[in-house]
Design brief:
Elements lengths: L2 E4 L2 E2 L8 E2 L2 E4 L2 E3 L8 E4 L4 E4 L1 E6 L12 H10 L2 E6 L10 H14 L3 E4 L15 H7 L14 H12 L6 E2 L11 E2 L2 H6 L3 E2 L2 H17 L3 E3 L5 H12 L4 E5 L1 H5 L21 H13 L4 E2 L8 H4 L13 H13 L6 H16 L14 E11 L18 E11 L2 E5 L3
Parallel strand pairs: 1-6, 2-7, 8-9, 9-10, 11-14, 12-13, 14-15, 15-16
Antiparallel strand pairs: 1-4, 2-3, 4-5, 7-17, 17-18, 18-19
Helix pairs in contact: 2-3, 4-6, 6-7, 7-9
Length: about 425
């Protein structure tokens, strides 16, 4: 569809200062001027025109776990949340550790996906940390990164070899950082775990492996990316490493700067996640890391589960929750409206930097770029209803909370994949 977007405030580091100007979409690309008539004109007065968000870390559960989510429902939820592309983790069944599974994901996404889908391949076969997965063949099939997310790579020697091998294909490893000897718990180790009588997971469980990956990256001169940073110590380690020139990047999730361990009170399994929700001090440290550039991107870690996997005793409940449709309003409320960052910086965190890490031709509104666009309303207030999401899963800890901001239009390759009309 050829589209004219008029009267909106256009924001994007590659498009110059924010300002009201038209954006033209022709043949799936952004253009600055055109003689071709539009099939449709979108009046974005009072709204913001942004590069479509790219979620660099999510779980679509497809293949094998489609009772939780699948590519169709997951990408529909992502589009509703303003994402034009998602990168899905490898912990499917079977594991995405070979070219056949990568091909399945890409082919199904082309048929039924609302957004672009970029598979992330496993580092090790079956996520067991013993033998390298088919990295070269998966790279040929189109993976954008490697990760055993959901499980840490326990052996430092294995991780070292994996980083070296991945670099031959221009791929980065996304490290799920936790020391297995310290994670035999259900929530953060602290005041609330004590009050609730639950075994806790200390911050050190994450920080030990963040430090290890930093040392490996520094000694090898290779890239590494740290997944879902949640503690003050992790932020400090990454900040200090960057100051030394280490090729390290990291991400965090909206729940680590909007919630704390207190959300688990009453044995609320909807707030159970890995890494666990931390303390208020950790939450403030995440905000500081976002503000000063230590944290490179914000991801959802969208983790759908069936109700039966959450409606059990806390220690047995599955970790994680859905996040596509709550991410933008939470970033708007807690980062933009709170004055932590600017809208330009938010675009870097959610579009520019993920595109750069994965080597994608998106994340920008410059001429010739793929027409992946988010038209956002920063002022719309609404109440989050976990049962009204497009996701197949309904496990979200924000049920009943007032949100501010939403995606009004999500456009992928010039096609409108989500539209919210008042």
């Amino acid at each position: 569809m050829n589209l004219d977007i008029i009267n909106g405030t256009v924001v994007g580091p590659a498009t110059g200062p924010a300002g009201i100007r038209p954006v033209y979409i022709r043949d799936g690309k952004i253009t600055l001027a055109t003689d071709k008539p539009a099939d449709r004109v979108i009046d974005a007065a009072g709204l913001y025109v942004l590069p479509g968000m790219i979620d660099a870390h999510c779980h679509l559960r497809d293949p094998g776990l489609v009772y939780k989510e699948d590519i169709a429902t997951g990408t529909a939820s992502a589009a509703k949340g303003g994402f034009t592309a998602v990168a899905c983790m490898a912990n499917t069944q079977p594991v995405c550790d070979n070219a056949a599974v990568v091909g399945y994901i890409r082919n199904k996404a082309e048929r039924v996906g609302k957004t672009r889908v970029h598979p992330i391949g496993a580092v090790s076969k079956n996520l067991e940390g013993r033998e390298l997965a088919e990295i070269g063949l998966m790279a040929q099939e189109g993976i954008v990164a490697l990760s055993d997310d959901g499980k840490p790579v326990v052996s430092a020697d294995f991780m070292r070899k994996a980083m070296q091998y991945a670099s031959d294909f221009g791929l980065v490893i996304i490290s799920h950082c936790e020391d297995p000897s310290l994670v035999d718990g259900a929530m953060n180790e602290g005041e609330w775990s004590t009050l609730m009588g639950l075994r806790g997971i200390p911050a050190a469980a994450e920080e030990i492996q963040v430090a290890r990956e930093t040392i490996l990256a520094e000694s090898l001169g290779l890239r590494v990316h740290i997944a879902h940073v949640s503690t003050r110590g992790s932020v400090r380690i990454v900040r200090e490493a960057k100051a030394r020139g280490v090729k390290i990047t990291c991400e965090t999730c909206p729940h680590y700067f909007t919630l704390t361990e207190e959300a688990c009170k009453g044995y609320n399994t909807l707030a159970k996640v890995n890494p666990p929700l931390r303390t208020e001090d950790d939450r403030q440290a995440i905000l500081e890391g976002i503000r000063d550039g230590t944290i490179d991107m914000i991801v959802t870690d969208h983790a759908p589960h069936h109700e039966d996997e959450k409606q059990v005793e806390f220690a047995l409940a599955a970790n994680g929750f859905i996040g596509f449709e709550s991410a933008f309003p939470l970033m708007n409320q807690h980062l933009l409206q709170a004055g932590v960052i600017t809208l330009d910086r938010l675009v870097e965190l959610t579009s520019v930097n993920p595109a750069k890490m994965f080597g994608l031709e998106s994340g920008t509104l410059q001429e010739g770029a793929a027409a992946d666009v988010l038209i956002a309303d920063l002022d719309d207030e609404w109440v989050f209803d976990r049962f009204a999401t497009a996701s197949k899963a309904k496990n979200a800890p924000y049920h009943g909370m007032t949100m501010r901001g939403r995606a009004r239009w999500t456009i992928v390759g010039g096609d409108i994949v989500h539209e919210f009309i008042r």
